Amino acid sequence: MKLSTKVMLGAVCAICLACTAAHATTSDTFRCPNGALIATGDRLSTAIVRCDAPTVITRRTLTRGLPFGYYETVDLEEWTYNLGPSSFIYYLTFENGFLQRIESGTYGN
Fold this sequence. Notes:
By secondary structure, the protein is of the alpha+beta class. Helices cover 25% and strands 45% of the residues. It has helices spanning 3-22, 44-50, and strands at 25-27, 29-31, 37-39, 56-65, 71-82, 88-95, 98-107.
């Protein structure tokens, strides 16, 4: 392999790794600031009892299209935990009262 091909291949690999690292990561569990553990599939009421209050709560309703012209309405609630500059920001998404997704973002402030 020529030197220029090796350099180009190395540059492409570095760009791919950088793009992958820039996206939020997902997890199946979240350790609340008070130390309690919750997992995807848990009820919203369980998270309210186990966890400290989140930094921000965002609520909205979403309508999704389904096959054959049907649709469903989903109640979404997203909790944001900003745990400071030495920790990542966490986003917990509840759909119809159940924890569906746990994502971590960049460092907090």
